[in-house]
Amino acid sequence: MPHTMQEIPTKPFDGQKPGTSGLRKRVKVFQQEHYTENFIQSIFNSIEAKGSTLVIGGDGRYFSPETVQTILKIGSANGVEKFIVGKDSILSTPAVSNIIRKYKANGGILLTASHNPGGPDKDFGIKYNVSNGGPAPENVTNKIYENTKTIVSYKVIEAPPVDLSKIGEFSYGPTKVSIIDSVADYVVLLESIFDFPLIKSFLSSHSNDFRVLFDGLNGVTGPYAQALFVDVLGLPKSSIQNCIPLPDFGGGHPDPNLIYAHTLVDAVEKDGIEFGAASDGDGDRNMIYGKGAFVTPSDSVAIIAHWADAIPYFKKGGVKGLARSMPTSKAIDLVAQKKGFEYFEVPTGWKFFGNLMDAGRLSICGEESFGTGSDHIREKDGLWAVVAWLNILAAANRESPNRLVGINELLYAHYAIYGRSFFSRYDYEEVPSAGANALVAHLNHALDSGSLTNTTHKSASTGTTFTVSGLYDFAYTDPIDKSVSKNQGQVITFSDGSRVVFRLSGTGSEGATVRMYVERYVGPEASAEELKRDAAEGLKGLIEVALELSKLKEFLGVDKPTVIT
Ligand code: VG1
Ligand code: CO
Fold it and tell me: Residue ranges of the chain with pLDDT lower than 50?
Protein backbone atom coordinates (compact mmCIF):
# COMPACT_ATOMS: atom_id res chain seq x y z
CA MET A 1 0.00 0.00 0.00
CA PRO A 2 1.46 3.45 -0.87
CA HIS A 3 2.12 5.64 2.10
CA THR A 4 3.72 8.94 2.89
CA MET A 5 6.13 9.58 5.65
CA GLN A 6 6.81 12.85 7.36
CA GLU A 7 9.60 14.06 9.57
CA ILE A 8 8.32 16.54 12.16
CA PRO A 9 10.74 18.93 13.90
CA THR A 10 10.60 19.05 17.68
CA LYS A 11 12.56 20.20 20.74
CA PRO A 12 13.54 18.21 23.82
CA PHE A 13 11.39 18.30 26.97
CA ASP A 14 12.96 18.21 30.42
CA GLY A 15 12.34 15.32 32.78
CA GLN A 16 11.52 12.45 30.41
CA LYS A 17 13.48 10.08 32.64
CA PRO A 18 11.80 6.71 33.21
CA GLY A 19 11.42 5.94 36.95
CA THR A 20 11.06 2.66 38.86
CA SER A 21 8.67 1.48 36.17
CA GLY A 22 8.43 3.68 33.08
CA LEU A 23 7.70 7.37 32.51
CA ARG A 24 4.77 8.53 34.66
CA LYS A 25 3.36 12.05 34.51
CA ARG A 26 0.04 13.82 34.63
CA VAL A 27 -2.09 13.29 31.50
CA LYS A 28 -1.88 17.05 30.86
CA VAL A 29 1.90 16.75 30.57
CA PHE A 30 1.64 13.92 28.02
CA GLN A 31 -0.96 15.94 26.09
CA GLN A 32 1.47 18.80 25.35
CA GLU A 33 2.24 19.06 21.66
CA HIS A 34 5.12 16.67 20.74
CA TYR A 35 5.62 15.43 24.35
CA THR A 36 4.36 11.86 23.86
CA GLU A 37 5.75 11.72 20.31
CA ASN A 38 9.23 12.72 21.55
CA PHE A 39 9.30 9.96 24.14
CA ILE A 40 8.08 7.33 21.69
CA GLN A 41 10.58 8.36 19.01
CA SER A 42 13.28 8.21 21.72
CA ILE A 43 12.29 4.60 22.43
CA PHE A 44 12.63 3.77 18.73
CA ASN A 45 15.99 5.59 18.59
CA SER A 46 17.22 3.37 21.42
CA ILE A 47 16.21 -0.05 20.07
CA GLU A 48 16.54 -1.99 16.85
CA ALA A 49 13.17 -0.86 15.42
CA LYS A 50 13.65 -1.95 11.82
CA GLY A 51 12.04 -5.32 11.13
CA SER A 52 10.92 -5.75 14.73
CA THR A 53 7.72 -7.16 16.19
CA LEU A 54 6.36 -5.19 19.15
CA VAL A 55 3.41 -5.70 21.47
CA ILE A 56 1.22 -2.77 22.55
CA GLY A 57 -1.28 -2.81 25.39
CA GLY A 58 -2.15 -1.26 28.69
CA ASP A 59 -4.60 -0.82 31.51
CA GLY A 60 -7.08 1.12 29.35
CA ARG A 61 -6.63 4.35 31.23
CA TYR A 62 -7.54 7.76 29.84
CA PHE A 63 -5.32 8.78 26.86
CA SER A 64 -4.48 5.15 25.97
CA PRO A 65 -6.34 4.79 22.64
CA GLU A 66 -4.80 8.04 21.30
CA THR A 67 -1.35 6.90 22.35
CA VAL A 68 -1.73 3.53 20.62
CA GLN A 69 -2.38 5.41 17.36
CA THR A 70 0.67 7.62 17.99
CA ILE A 71 2.86 4.54 18.53
CA LEU A 72 1.53 2.91 15.34
CA LYS A 73 2.28 6.05 13.30
CA ILE A 74 5.79 6.57 14.64
CA GLY A 75 6.64 2.88 14.86
CA SER A 76 5.60 2.21 11.30
CA ALA A 77 7.67 5.16 10.08
CA ASN A 78 10.64 3.75 11.99
CA GLY A 79 10.40 0.40 10.24
CA VAL A 80 8.54 -1.79 12.74
CA GLU A 81 7.40 -4.87 10.82
CA LYS A 82 4.54 -5.98 13.03
CA PHE A 83 2.53 -4.70 15.97
CA ILE A 84 0.50 -7.05 18.16
CA VAL A 85 -2.12 -4.92 19.92
CA GLY A 86 -4.62 -5.83 22.63
CA LYS A 87 -8.25 -5.26 21.60
CA ASP A 88 -9.38 -1.77 22.66
CA SER A 89 -5.76 -1.20 23.78
CA ILE A 90 -6.37 -3.51 26.77
CA LEU A 91 -3.68 -5.91 27.96
CA SER A 92 -2.64 -6.36 31.57
CA THR A 93 1.06 -5.93 32.30
CA PRO A 94 1.53 -9.68 32.95
CA ALA A 95 -0.43 -10.45 29.77
CA VAL A 96 1.95 -8.25 27.74
CA SER A 97 4.93 -10.02 29.26
CA ASN A 98 3.44 -13.37 28.30
CA ILE A 99 2.59 -12.30 24.75
CA ILE A 100 6.09 -10.93 24.12
CA ARG A 101 7.54 -14.29 25.21
CA LYS A 102 4.96 -16.55 23.58
CA TYR A 103 5.09 -14.88 20.16
CA LYS A 104 8.82 -14.15 20.35
CA ALA A 105 8.32 -10.42 19.91
CA ASN A 106 11.29 -8.08 20.26
CA GLY A 107 9.64 -6.06 23.00
CA GLY A 108 6.53 -4.15 23.94
CA ILE A 109 5.20 -0.76 24.90
CA LEU A 110 2.89 -0.66 27.91
CA LEU A 111 0.51 2.21 28.46
CA THR A 112 -0.03 2.37 32.17
CA ALA A 113 0.77 4.27 35.32
CA SER A 114 -0.13 1.13 37.25
CA HIS A 115 -1.71 1.93 40.61
CA ASN A 116 -1.69 5.71 40.07
CA PRO A 117 -5.15 7.23 39.49
CA GLY A 118 -6.32 7.87 35.92
CA GLY A 119 -8.45 10.43 34.09
CA PRO A 120 -7.89 13.80 32.38
CA ASP A 121 -6.39 15.37 35.53
CA LYS A 122 -4.55 12.29 36.77
CA ASP A 123 -1.69 10.11 35.57
CA PHE A 124 -0.59 8.41 32.39
CA GLY A 125 2.49 6.31 31.79
CA ILE A 126 4.58 4.66 29.08
CA LYS A 127 6.92 1.75 29.76
CA TYR A 128 9.17 -0.20 27.43
CA ASN A 129 9.69 -3.94 27.90
CA VAL A 130 12.41 -5.99 26.23
CA SER A 131 12.39 -9.38 24.47
CA ASN A 132 12.44 -11.47 27.66
CA GLY A 133 9.08 -9.86 28.47
CA GLY A 134 10.42 -7.80 31.36
CA PRO A 135 10.83 -4.07 31.98
CA ALA A 136 13.79 -2.57 30.16
CA PRO A 137 16.93 -2.64 32.30
CA GLU A 138 18.60 0.61 33.33
CA ASN A 139 21.06 0.67 30.42
CA VAL A 140 18.09 0.79 28.01
CA THR A 141 16.03 3.31 30.00
CA ASN A 142 19.11 5.52 30.33
CA LYS A 143 19.60 5.38 26.57
CA ILE A 144 15.97 6.40 26.03
CA TYR A 145 16.42 9.28 28.47
CA GLU A 146 19.62 10.45 26.74
CA ASN A 147 17.71 10.44 23.45
CA THR A 148 14.92 12.60 24.88
CA LYS A 149 17.53 15.25 25.71
CA THR A 150 18.82 15.63 22.16
CA ILE A 151 15.82 14.79 19.98
CA VAL A 152 15.28 17.16 17.03
CA SER A 153 12.54 15.39 15.07
CA TYR A 154 10.25 12.39 14.94
CA LYS A 155 8.92 10.40 12.00
CA VAL A 156 5.31 9.57 11.31
CA ILE A 157 3.46 7.72 8.62
CA GLU A 158 0.23 9.11 7.24
CA ALA A 159 -2.49 6.53 7.53
CA PRO A 160 -6.03 6.48 8.89
CA PRO A 161 -6.36 5.31 12.52
CA VAL A 162 -6.69 1.57 13.13
CA ASP A 163 -10.01 0.36 14.57
CA LEU A 164 -8.81 -1.14 17.84
CA SER A 165 -12.12 -2.86 18.53
CA LYS A 166 -11.82 -5.40 15.68
CA ILE A 167 -9.83 -8.57 16.23
CA GLY A 168 -7.85 -9.57 13.13
CA GLU A 169 -4.82 -8.84 10.94
CA PHE A 170 -4.64 -5.51 9.14
CA SER A 171 -2.06 -3.66 7.09
CA TYR A 172 -1.03 -0.23 8.15
CA GLY A 173 1.29 1.40 5.65
CA PRO A 174 4.25 -0.98 5.41
CA THR A 175 3.44 -2.53 8.82
CA LYS A 176 1.22 -5.44 9.85
CA VAL A 177 -1.10 -4.83 12.78
CA SER A 178 -2.64 -7.77 14.58
CA ILE A 179 -5.44 -6.96 17.04
CA ILE A 180 -5.75 -9.82 19.52
CA ASP A 181 -8.12 -10.99 22.23
CA SER A 182 -6.85 -9.46 25.48
CA VAL A 183 -7.52 -12.43 27.71
CA ALA A 184 -7.23 -15.78 25.89
CA ASP A 185 -3.43 -16.31 25.92
CA TYR A 186 -3.25 -15.44 29.60
CA VAL A 187 -5.89 -17.98 30.60
CA VAL A 188 -4.01 -20.68 28.65
CA LEU A 189 -0.83 -19.67 30.53
CA LEU A 190 -2.37 -19.96 34.00
CA GLU A 191 -4.02 -23.26 33.10
CA SER A 192 -0.56 -24.61 32.27
CA ILE A 193 0.79 -23.56 35.70
CA PHE A 194 -1.87 -24.38 38.31
CA ASP A 195 -3.98 -27.38 39.27
CA PHE A 196 -7.30 -26.02 38.02
CA PRO A 197 -9.21 -29.31 38.50
CA LEU A 198 -8.15 -29.41 42.17
CA ILE A 199 -9.08 -25.75 42.73
CA LYS A 200 -12.40 -26.24 41.00
CA SER A 201 -13.36 -29.27 43.06
CA PHE A 202 -12.29 -27.54 46.29
CA LEU A 203 -14.35 -24.44 45.49
CA SER A 204 -17.42 -26.39 44.45
CA SER A 205 -17.37 -28.63 47.53
CA HIS A 206 -16.97 -25.57 49.79
CA SER A 207 -19.41 -23.20 48.14
CA ASN A 208 -20.97 -22.44 51.55
CA ASP A 209 -17.99 -22.15 53.87
CA PHE A 210 -15.34 -20.81 51.48
CA ARG A 211 -16.65 -17.92 49.46
CA VAL A 212 -14.44 -15.90 47.14
CA LEU A 213 -14.58 -12.22 46.20
CA PHE A 214 -12.23 -10.63 43.69
CA ASP A 215 -12.20 -6.85 43.21
CA GLY A 216 -10.75 -5.48 39.95
CA LEU A 217 -10.89 -1.88 41.24
CA ASN A 218 -12.11 -1.03 37.72
CA GLY A 219 -8.64 -1.67 36.38
CA VAL A 220 -7.57 -3.98 33.61
CA THR A 221 -8.06 -7.33 35.40
CA GLY A 222 -11.87 -7.35 35.17
CA PRO A 223 -12.13 -9.36 31.94
CA TYR A 224 -9.36 -11.72 33.09
CA ALA A 225 -11.15 -12.31 36.42
CA GLN A 226 -14.42 -13.01 34.62
CA ALA A 227 -12.67 -15.58 32.43
CA LEU A 228 -10.72 -17.27 35.25
CA PHE A 229 -13.04 -17.20 38.23
CA VAL A 230 -16.45 -17.34 36.59
CA ASP A 231 -15.97 -19.05 33.22
CA VAL A 232 -13.18 -21.50 34.09
CA LEU A 233 -13.47 -22.10 37.83
CA GLY A 234 -17.27 -21.94 37.84
CA LEU A 235 -17.69 -19.40 40.65
CA PRO A 236 -20.88 -17.34 40.72
CA LYS A 237 -20.88 -13.92 39.06
CA SER A 238 -21.19 -12.37 42.53
CA SER A 239 -17.59 -13.52 43.18
CA ILE A 240 -16.21 -10.62 41.18
CA GLN A 241 -16.83 -6.89 41.59
CA ASN A 242 -15.65 -3.64 39.97
CA CYS A 243 -14.59 -5.72 37.01
CA ILE A 244 -15.31 -3.31 34.16
CA PRO A 245 -12.14 -1.46 33.16
CA LEU A 246 -12.80 2.29 33.28
CA PRO A 247 -10.53 5.06 31.91
CA ASP A 248 -10.53 6.76 35.34
CA PHE A 249 -10.93 3.58 37.44
CA GLY A 250 -14.21 5.03 38.73
CA GLY A 251 -12.32 7.94 40.31
CA GLY A 252 -10.35 5.81 42.79
CA HIS A 253 -6.76 4.76 43.31
CA PRO A 254 -6.54 1.35 41.62
CA ASP A 255 -4.12 0.18 44.29
CA PRO A 256 -4.79 -3.05 46.21
CA ASN A 257 -3.95 -2.12 49.78
CA LEU A 258 -6.00 -1.70 52.94
CA ILE A 259 -6.67 1.98 52.27
CA TYR A 260 -7.39 2.17 48.57
CA ALA A 261 -9.06 -1.24 48.14
CA HIS A 262 -11.72 -0.41 50.71
CA THR A 263 -14.46 -1.64 48.35
CA LEU A 264 -13.00 -5.11 48.82
CA VAL A 265 -12.23 -4.79 52.53
CA ASP A 266 -15.74 -3.48 53.28
CA ALA A 267 -17.48 -6.22 51.30
CA VAL A 268 -15.35 -8.99 52.83
CA GLU A 269 -15.99 -7.77 56.35
CA LYS A 270 -19.69 -7.10 55.81
CA ASP A 271 -20.41 -10.50 54.27
CA GLY A 272 -17.81 -12.48 56.22
CA ILE A 273 -16.10 -13.71 53.05
CA GLU A 274 -13.29 -16.22 53.62
CA PHE A 275 -11.16 -15.32 50.61
CA GLY A 276 -10.94 -11.83 49.16
CA ALA A 277 -8.42 -10.50 46.67
CA ALA A 278 -7.79 -7.41 44.58
CA SER A 279 -5.45 -6.27 41.85
CA ASP A 280 -4.15 -2.90 40.67
CA GLY A 281 -4.82 -0.83 37.55
CA ASP A 282 -2.50 -2.81 35.26
CA GLY A 283 -2.93 -6.20 36.94
CA ASP A 284 0.56 -6.84 38.28
CA ARG A 285 -0.16 -6.27 41.99
CA ASN A 286 -2.34 -8.30 44.33
CA MET A 287 -3.73 -8.22 47.82
CA ILE A 288 -4.98 -11.30 49.67
CA TYR A 289 -7.50 -10.36 52.31
CA GLY A 290 -10.07 -12.66 53.88
CA LYS A 291 -12.42 -12.25 56.84
CA GLY A 292 -10.17 -11.17 59.73
CA ALA A 293 -7.11 -12.14 57.72
CA PHE A 294 -4.70 -9.83 55.95
CA VAL A 295 -1.66 -11.35 54.31
CA THR A 296 1.30 -8.99 54.02
CA PRO A 297 2.92 -9.30 50.59
CA SER A 298 6.19 -10.26 52.32
CA ASP A 299 4.44 -13.20 54.01
CA SER A 300 2.50 -14.05 50.87
CA VAL A 301 5.57 -14.73 48.75
CA ALA A 302 7.20 -16.71 51.57
CA ILE A 303 4.11 -18.90 51.95
CA ILE A 304 3.88 -19.50 48.19
CA ALA A 305 7.56 -20.50 48.23
CA HIS A 306 6.97 -22.86 51.17
CA TRP A 307 4.04 -24.51 49.38
CA ALA A 308 5.61 -24.49 45.89
CA ASP A 309 5.25 -28.26 45.56
CA ALA A 310 1.46 -27.91 45.54
CA ILE A 311 1.73 -25.98 42.26
CA PRO A 312 2.28 -28.23 39.22
CA TYR A 313 4.61 -25.72 37.49
CA PHE A 314 7.11 -25.87 40.38
CA LYS A 315 6.50 -29.54 41.15
CA LYS A 316 7.58 -30.32 37.61
CA GLY A 317 10.30 -27.70 37.04
CA GLY A 318 11.62 -27.43 40.59
CA VAL A 319 12.37 -24.23 42.49
CA LYS A 320 15.61 -22.70 41.22
CA GLY A 321 15.94 -19.89 43.74
CA LEU A 322 14.02 -17.23 45.64
CA ALA A 323 14.34 -13.45 45.82
CA ARG A 324 12.86 -10.28 47.24
CA SER A 325 13.38 -6.56 46.86
CA MET A 326 15.50 -5.01 49.60
CA PRO A 327 12.72 -3.38 51.70
CA THR A 328 10.62 -6.58 51.61
CA SER A 329 10.70 -8.55 54.87
CA LYS A 330 13.13 -11.43 55.22
CA ALA A 331 10.38 -14.05 55.59
CA ILE A 332 11.22 -15.55 52.20
CA ASP A 333 14.94 -15.80 53.12
CA LEU A 334 13.98 -18.14 55.96
CA VAL A 335 12.12 -20.44 53.58
CA ALA A 336 15.15 -20.50 51.27
CA GLN A 337 17.48 -21.31 54.16
CA LYS A 338 15.30 -24.14 55.43
CA LYS A 339 14.77 -25.68 52.00
CA GLY A 340 18.29 -25.09 50.76
CA PHE A 341 17.42 -22.74 47.88
CA GLU A 342 19.68 -19.96 46.66
CA TYR A 343 18.20 -16.51 47.47
CA PHE A 344 18.77 -12.89 46.49
CA GLU A 345 18.08 -9.35 47.69
CA VAL A 346 17.66 -6.87 44.81
CA PRO A 347 16.73 -3.17 44.60
CA THR A 348 13.10 -2.08 44.37
CA GLY A 349 11.56 -2.63 40.93
CA TRP A 350 10.75 -5.83 39.06
CA LYS A 351 13.39 -5.20 36.39
CA PHE A 352 16.05 -6.44 38.81
CA PHE A 353 14.63 -9.99 38.93
CA GLY A 354 14.79 -10.58 35.16
CA ASN A 355 18.49 -11.41 34.77
CA LEU A 356 18.34 -13.96 37.58
CA MET A 357 15.32 -15.64 36.00
CA ASP A 358 16.91 -15.68 32.55
CA ALA A 359 20.00 -17.29 34.08
CA GLY A 360 17.85 -20.05 35.61
CA ARG A 361 18.60 -19.05 39.18
CA LEU A 362 15.25 -17.64 40.29
CA SER A 363 11.74 -19.10 40.36
CA ILE A 364 9.64 -17.21 42.96
CA CYS A 365 10.04 -13.62 44.10
CA GLY A 366 8.19 -10.68 45.52
CA GLU A 367 8.12 -7.12 46.69
CA GLU A 368 6.47 -5.70 49.80
CA SER A 369 4.47 -3.40 47.52
CA PHE A 370 1.91 -6.11 46.75
CA GLY A 371 3.99 -7.60 43.96
CA THR A 372 4.37 -11.36 43.71
CA GLY A 373 5.41 -13.52 40.81
CA SER A 374 7.57 -16.16 39.24
CA ASP A 375 9.66 -16.97 36.21
CA HIS A 376 6.57 -17.93 34.16
CA ILE A 377 6.83 -14.35 32.83
CA ARG A 378 9.06 -11.35 33.57
CA GLU A 379 6.58 -9.08 35.38
CA LYS A 380 4.89 -9.47 38.72
CA ASP A 381 1.51 -11.03 38.28
CA GLY A 382 -1.55 -10.19 40.39
CA LEU A 383 -3.94 -12.90 39.22
CA TRP A 384 -1.16 -15.49 39.26
CA ALA A 385 -0.72 -14.77 42.98
CA VAL A 386 -4.46 -15.00 43.66
CA VAL A 387 -4.74 -18.33 41.84
CA ALA A 388 -1.56 -19.53 43.59
CA TRP A 389 -3.27 -18.91 46.94
CA LEU A 390 -6.39 -20.77 45.80
CA ASN A 391 -4.22 -23.66 44.60
CA ILE A 392 -2.38 -23.78 47.94
CA LEU A 393 -5.57 -23.59 49.98
CA ALA A 394 -7.10 -26.34 47.85
CA ALA A 395 -4.02 -28.50 48.49
CA ALA A 396 -4.00 -27.74 52.22
CA ASN A 397 -7.66 -28.70 52.45
CA ARG A 398 -7.06 -31.95 50.60
CA GLU A 399 -4.81 -32.83 53.55
CA SER A 400 -7.44 -31.68 56.04
CA PRO A 401 -10.76 -33.13 54.90
CA ASN A 402 -12.68 -32.52 58.15
CA ARG A 403 -11.70 -29.01 59.10
CA LEU A 404 -11.57 -26.06 56.72
CA VAL A 405 -8.10 -24.53 56.43
CA GLY A 406 -8.46 -20.82 55.73
CA ILE A 407 -6.01 -17.97 55.22
CA ASN A 408 -5.35 -17.50 58.94
CA GLU A 409 -4.64 -21.19 59.54
CA LEU A 410 -2.05 -21.11 56.76
CA LEU A 411 -0.47 -17.95 58.17
CA TYR A 412 -0.20 -19.26 61.72
CA ALA A 413 1.12 -22.62 60.60
CA HIS A 414 3.82 -20.73 58.70
CA TYR A 415 4.77 -18.58 61.71
CA ALA A 416 4.97 -21.69 63.88
CA ILE A 417 7.68 -23.06 61.58
CA TYR A 418 9.58 -19.93 60.58
CA GLY A 419 8.68 -17.24 63.09
CA ARG A 420 7.09 -14.01 62.00
CA SER A 421 8.42 -10.82 60.45
CA PHE A 422 6.17 -7.97 61.49
CA PHE A 423 6.28 -5.54 58.60
CA SER A 424 4.74 -2.21 57.74
CA ARG A 425 5.28 0.60 55.28
CA TYR A 426 4.48 4.28 55.80
CA ASP A 427 4.04 6.39 52.65
CA TYR A 428 4.30 10.17 52.67
CA GLU A 429 2.93 11.02 49.25
CA GLU A 430 3.51 14.21 47.26
CA VAL A 431 5.53 16.01 49.93
CA PRO A 432 7.80 18.96 48.96
CA SER A 433 10.98 17.70 47.25
CA ALA A 434 13.17 20.02 49.36
CA GLY A 435 12.02 18.36 52.60
CA ALA A 436 12.51 14.88 51.18
CA ASN A 437 16.03 15.75 50.04
CA ALA A 438 16.84 17.20 53.46
CA LEU A 439 15.74 13.94 55.08
CA VAL A 440 18.01 11.97 52.75
CA ALA A 441 20.90 14.37 53.52
CA HIS A 442 20.29 13.99 57.28
CA LEU A 443 20.50 10.19 57.01
CA ASN A 444 23.56 10.42 54.76
CA HIS A 445 25.23 12.56 57.38
CA ALA A 446 24.48 9.98 60.09
CA LEU A 447 25.82 7.33 57.76
CA ASP A 448 29.08 9.14 57.02
CA SER A 449 29.75 10.42 60.53
CA GLY A 450 28.61 7.28 62.37
CA SER A 451 26.75 9.58 64.77
CA LEU A 452 23.81 7.22 65.22
CA THR A 453 25.70 3.94 65.47
CA ASN A 454 25.45 2.27 68.89
CA THR A 455 22.98 4.86 70.17
CA THR A 456 20.07 3.51 72.18
CA HIS A 457 16.49 4.72 71.84
CA LYS A 458 13.53 4.07 74.03
CA SER A 459 9.99 4.09 72.76
CA ALA A 460 7.86 6.36 74.92
CA SER A 461 4.69 4.32 74.66
CA THR A 462 5.95 0.72 74.87
CA GLY A 463 9.15 1.25 76.87
CA THR A 464 11.10 -1.02 74.49
CA THR A 465 14.67 0.05 73.73
CA PHE A 466 16.36 -0.28 70.36
CA THR A 467 20.11 0.04 69.78
CA VAL A 468 21.31 1.07 66.32
CA SER A 469 23.79 -1.53 65.08
CA GLY A 470 24.50 -0.09 61.66
CA LEU A 471 23.51 2.22 58.83
CA TYR A 472 24.13 1.80 55.13
CA ASP A 473 23.09 2.96 51.70
CA PHE A 474 21.93 -0.08 49.71
CA ALA A 475 23.83 -0.71 46.46
CA TYR A 476 23.47 -3.79 44.24
CA THR A 477 25.76 -5.52 41.83
CA ASP A 478 23.80 -7.71 39.44
CA PRO A 479 25.31 -11.23 39.77
CA ILE A 480 24.75 -11.90 36.06
CA ASP A 481 25.78 -8.77 34.15
CA LYS A 482 27.70 -7.11 37.02
CA SER A 483 25.89 -3.79 36.51
CA VAL A 484 25.85 -1.65 39.65
CA SER A 485 22.84 0.27 41.01
CA LYS A 486 23.59 2.73 43.80
CA ASN A 487 21.49 4.77 46.26
CA GLN A 488 18.68 2.23 46.45
CA GLY A 489 17.56 3.11 49.98
CA GLN A 490 19.03 3.94 53.38
CA VAL A 491 18.90 1.14 55.91
CA ILE A 492 19.16 1.37 59.71
CA THR A 493 19.68 -1.94 61.49
CA PHE A 494 19.15 -2.60 65.20
CA SER A 495 20.83 -5.03 67.55
CA ASP A 496 17.67 -7.16 67.92
CA GLY A 497 17.60 -7.78 64.14
CA SER A 498 14.95 -5.14 63.44
CA ARG A 499 15.38 -2.90 60.44
CA VAL A 500 14.09 0.42 59.12
CA VAL A 501 14.49 1.54 55.51
CA PHE A 502 13.97 4.98 53.97
CA ARG A 503 13.54 5.35 50.21
CA LEU A 504 12.29 7.92 47.75
CA SER A 505 9.64 6.62 45.37
CA GLY A 506 10.43 6.46 41.68
CA THR A 507 6.84 6.20 40.47
CA GLY A 508 5.24 9.42 41.69
CA SER A 509 4.25 12.18 39.29
CA GLU A 510 4.28 15.29 41.54
CA GLY A 511 6.65 16.41 44.32
CA ALA A 512 8.35 13.58 46.19
CA THR A 513 7.05 10.49 47.92
CA VAL A 514 8.97 9.16 50.91
CA ARG A 515 8.57 5.57 52.01
CA MET A 516 9.55 4.25 55.43
CA TYR A 517 9.67 0.46 55.84
CA VAL A 518 9.86 -1.19 59.27
CA GLU A 519 10.52 -4.83 60.08
CA ARG A 520 10.78 -6.69 63.38
CA TYR A 521 11.34 -10.43 63.59
CA VAL A 522 9.97 -12.73 66.28
CA GLY A 523 11.23 -16.34 66.28
CA PRO A 524 9.04 -19.47 66.15
CA GLU A 525 9.75 -20.15 69.84
CA ALA A 526 7.62 -17.11 70.78
CA SER A 527 4.19 -17.74 72.26
CA ALA A 528 1.23 -18.20 69.94
CA GLU A 529 -0.18 -15.02 71.40
CA GLU A 530 2.94 -13.06 70.45
CA LEU A 531 3.02 -14.55 66.95
CA LYS A 532 -0.66 -13.77 66.32
CA ARG A 533 -0.45 -10.21 67.53
CA ASP A 534 -1.84 -7.33 65.54
CA ALA A 535 0.99 -6.08 63.29
CA ALA A 536 0.53 -2.43 64.30
CA GLU A 537 0.94 -3.42 67.96
CA GLY A 538 4.01 -5.53 67.23
CA LEU A 539 5.70 -2.60 65.49
CA LYS A 540 4.58 0.35 67.56
CA GLY A 541 7.81 0.91 69.50
CA LEU A 542 10.05 0.51 66.47
CA ILE A 543 8.01 2.97 64.43
CA GLU A 544 8.25 5.60 67.15
CA VAL A 545 12.00 5.18 67.31
CA ALA A 546 12.34 5.31 63.51
CA LEU A 547 10.40 8.56 63.31
CA GLU A 548 12.44 10.09 66.08
CA LEU A 549 15.82 9.03 64.65
CA SER A 550 15.07 10.29 61.18
CA LYS A 551 13.33 13.50 62.26
CA LEU A 552 11.00 12.67 59.38
CA LYS A 553 8.07 14.75 60.56
CA GLU A 554 10.24 17.85 60.91
CA PHE A 555 11.80 17.49 57.49
CA LEU A 556 8.58 16.72 55.64
CA GLY A 557 6.39 19.06 57.64
CA VAL A 558 3.67 16.42 57.97
CA ASP A 559 2.33 14.61 60.97
CA LYS A 560 0.81 11.48 59.48
CA PRO A 561 1.57 9.26 56.50
CA THR A 562 -0.84 9.26 53.56
CA VAL A 563 -1.00 5.48 53.47
CA ILE A 564 -0.02 2.79 55.96
CA THR A 565 0.25 -0.77 54.74
C1 VG1 B 1 6.66 1.23 43.64
C2 VG1 B 1 6.94 0.05 44.55
C3 VG1 B 1 7.84 -0.95 43.85
C4 VG1 B 1 7.19 -1.37 42.51
C5 VG1 B 1 6.87 -0.14 41.69
C6 VG1 B 1 6.11 -0.48 40.43
O7 VG1 B 1 7.87 1.88 43.33
O8 VG1 B 1 7.53 0.47 45.77
O9 VG1 B 1 8.06 -2.05 44.68
O10 VG1 B 1 8.04 -2.21 41.80
O11 VG1 B 1 6.06 0.76 42.45
O12 VG1 B 1 4.91 -1.14 40.72
P13 VG1 B 1 8.37 3.21 44.07
O14 VG1 B 1 9.63 3.60 43.37
O15 VG1 B 1 7.25 4.20 43.94
O16 VG1 B 1 8.58 2.82 45.50
V17 VG1 B 1 3.59 -0.99 39.65
O18 VG1 B 1 2.41 -2.04 40.09
O19 VG1 B 1 3.26 0.63 39.94
O20 VG1 B 1 4.23 -1.13 38.16
CO1 CO C 1 0.99 -2.22 38.68
Answer: none
